[in-house]
Design a protein that fits this description.
Layout (H helix, E strand, L loop, with lengths): L4 E12 L2 E7 L2 E3 L3 E5 L6 H8 L7 E6 L2 E2 L5 H7 L1 E4 L11 H13 L9 H4 L3 H10 L15 H14 L4 E5 L7 H14 L4 E5 L3 H7 L2 E6 L2 E6 L1 H5 L2 H8 L12 H14 L2
Parallel strand pairs: 4-9, 4-10, 7-8, 8-9
Antiparallel strand pairs: 1-2, 1-3, 1-5, 5-6, 10-11
Helix pairs in contact: 3-5, 3-6, 5-6, 6-7
Length: 274
């Protein structure tokens, strides 16, 4: 039986004035998976993500969504197809209520996002769905709160609710736990797992503990190219991943590192590369 891919790239490449930021990336995202893009700083994760979400146009290569070539499409066009991006920095309206933020997203999905002059009676028909979405992300009790008053973790949960309002088939999450405390990280990770039901998620994530907890498949990037990919067991067992993250080869000692530090480091890499 053939594998069902929702998103695929073929020889994806991006150059900036002679510098190759992304080189021949062949990515296959299976329908229904949570797929993580990871890699050390400068690996090309953000550039690949910007190519996939059409904020950059590739120098060469193809991007297919459900078999359709979207390589040259604009962000708004792929959003209408069901490819929705959530940004690294929380992108909500701070002085609207939590409910109003979700309702604006619902208006956009219905194609009347600029109808702010409509009567409350007309717009209230969207409230029931907005409340359902807030309940899905654990924010129903904050529906009438001003968004500016939410904690950072709850603002990210609200952003996920507004993303869900657009009914994505493929959600692209850009470092969803960036800047969070440990307590918020676990809450948002659990939320991502919950909303992944019946949809596909592709995420760039720096927190490797979160990746180990969520990802069905992991693609490791290094210097703009795919280093390795697979499930957690495959990726964490690859010595090249240790070298990419720590700059040391398998069996090589880190200069000045004590025996205790070596043991701790080995344990951290095994846990982190999850």
């Amino acid at each position: 039986m053939s594998t069902d891919y929702v998103l695929q790239t073929t020889d994806l490449r991006k150059e900036f004035k002679g510098f190759t930021a992304v080189e021949d990336v062949n990515l296959n995202v299976r329908r229904g998976d949570i797929h993580a893009l990871i890699g050390p700083n400068g690996a090309g994760k953000t550039t690949v993500f910007n190519l996939l979400t059409k904020f950059l146009i590739p120098t060469s290569g193809k991007i297919l969504f459900n078999g359709q070539d979207i390589t040259t499409m604009k962000p708004a066009a792929i959003a209408r197809l069901g490819v929705i991006r959530s940004f690294q920095i929380s992108a909500v309206f701070p002085h609207l209520t939590v409910l109003e933020n979700v309702r604006v997203a619902l208006q956009r999905h219905e194609g009347n996002s600029f109808h702010f002059w409509k009567s409350e009676k007309v717009l209230d028909k969207l409230n029931d769905r907005a409340v359902e979405l807030l309940d899905d992300v654990g924010l129903a009790e904050f529906a009438n709160s001003k968004t500016v008053d939410l904690s950072y973790g709850r603002k990210r949960a609200l952003e996920i609710a507004t993303t869900l309002a657009l009914e994505p088939e493929l959600m692209l999450l850009d470092e969803p736990t960036q800047g969070m405390g440990h307590e918020d990280v676990d809450v948002v990770a659990d939320l991502i797992k919950r909303v992944s039901k019946d949809r596909t998620i592709l995420m760039v994530e720096h927190n490797l503990h979160v990746v180990s907890k969520l990802a069905d498949r992991i693609t490791v990037l290094q210097r703009g190219a795919i280093l390795t990919e697979g499930d957690y067991d495959t990726v964490s067992a690859d010595p090249r991943v240790r070298e990419a993250y720590l700059g040391v080869e398998e069996g090589e000692e880190v200069p000045g590192q004590s025996a205790a530090a070596k043991a701790s480091d080995s344990k951290d890499v095994q846990e982190a590369t999850a």
